[in-house]
Amino acid sequence: MTDSSFSNARRAEVLTQALPYIKRYTGKVVVVKYGGNAMVNETLKLQVMEDLVLLWLIGVKIVLVHGGGPEISELMDRLGKQPVFVDGLRVTDKETVDIVQMVLAGKVNKTLVNLLESHGGKAIGLSGVDGRLIEARQKDPRLGYVGEVIRIHKKPLTDLMDNGYIPVVSTVGCDRQGNAYNINGDTAAAYIAGALGAERLIMMTDIAGILRNKNDPATLIPELTVEQAKALYREGVISGGMIPKVDCCVTALKEGVKNAVIMDGRVPHSILMELLTDEGAGTWIHE
Questions:
Q1: Residue 21 within any structural domain of the chain
Q2: Number of domains comprising the chain
Q3: How far apart are CA 283 and CA 264, in angstroms?
Q4: Is residue 10 part of a domain?
Q5: How many CA atoms, within 13 angstroms, populate the side-chain half-sphere of residue 43?
Q6: How does DSSP assign 75-130, residue by residue?
Q7: What would the pLDDT profile of 46-66 be if each residue is shown by its tens digit?
C-alpha cells in the first residue's frame, strides 16, 4: 500500500469514527464564545473559521459570539485614552462605549463574517443592539456604560439560522431608552446559549481548561459537575480569571444549555476535537 492510499484510508476511517458525533450535533445549536489569543493569532483565527464552516456544512447550527478587548484597548491607546478596569471590567464612559461599538460591531465583527464567507460559509454579523437582541441595564454606576443582561430576544438569531446563516454576534447591548452598553462576552454567550437551548456552549480561552495546578497543563480536569465545581471554588482550585468563566458556564446550564466546555483556543482544530472525537478538549461542565 502506498503512502497516499494509506493516507486516504486513514481519512476515511477518521470520517467514519466521527459519524456518531456528526449525527448527535446535526440540527443542534452550538454557541461558540471566541476571543483571547486564538483571536489575535491570524493563523489560529483562520483555523477556527475553517472548523466552524465545516460544522455548519454538516448541519450544526453555529452561533459565534465574540469579544475584542485587545482591539478596543489598542484603539483607545491610539486615541490617547487610557483603559481603566475595576474588578476585571472595563470602565466605559460615553466616549469609550462609542469606541467599543466601532471596534466590536464594526471592525472585529465584519472581519469574522468575511473570514467565514471566504471559507465557504454564509454568515451575517449583528450586535446585541440589532433587533434588541441583548437587552441590558447598567451594571454598576462606577463602571459607566457597562451592562448586565436582562433578556435575550432570540428571534434575530433563530431567523438567521433557519435561513441557513451563521450569526456572528458582537456583545454590545442596549436598554429601552436606546443607551448602548458594553457587555462581558462570556456572560452574553451564556445567556444567548441558554435562550437558544443550545446543545453546547464552547468557551474558547488561552489556557487548557480548569487545571488542578494552574502551573501544570498536565493537571487538566477533563470533566466536572456543577457540584464538583463548587467544591473546587472552596478549595481555591478555581480562582482568579477562571472564576467568571466557570460562573458563566454554570449560568448557561441553569438557563437551559445541555453542557458547556472551557477549552484552549490556541490548540489547532480544538473545536473539532471537542465535538467530533472521544478525546474532547478542555474541561466539560454539566449538571
A1: no
A2: 1
A3: 9
A4: no
A5: 3
A6: HHHHTT----EETTEE-B-HHHHHHHHIIIIIIIHHHHHHHHHHTT--EEEEETTG
A7: 899 999 999 999 999 999 999
Task: Check residue 52 and give its pLDDT.
Answer: 96
Torsion over CA: 82, 88, 89, 91 (sign): negative
State the residue for C-alpha cell 464567507: 117
Query: Quick one: cell of 249?
Result: 458556564
Q: Is the dihedral of CA 265, 270, 276, 278 positive or negative?
A: negative
Cα separation, 60 vs 54, whole angstroms? 9
Instruction: Read off the pLDDT of residues 105-154 as tens digits, 9 standing for 90 and up.
Output: 999 999 999 999 999 999 999 999 999 999 999 999 999 999 999 999 99
Domain that holds residue 117: 26-286
In-domain check, residue 81: yes
The CATH number for 34's domain is: 3.40.1160.10
The model carries a pTM of 0.92
Band the pLDDT of 6: cuts 50, 70, 90. low
Q: Say which amino acid occupies 110.
A: K
Is 225 inside any structural domain?
yes
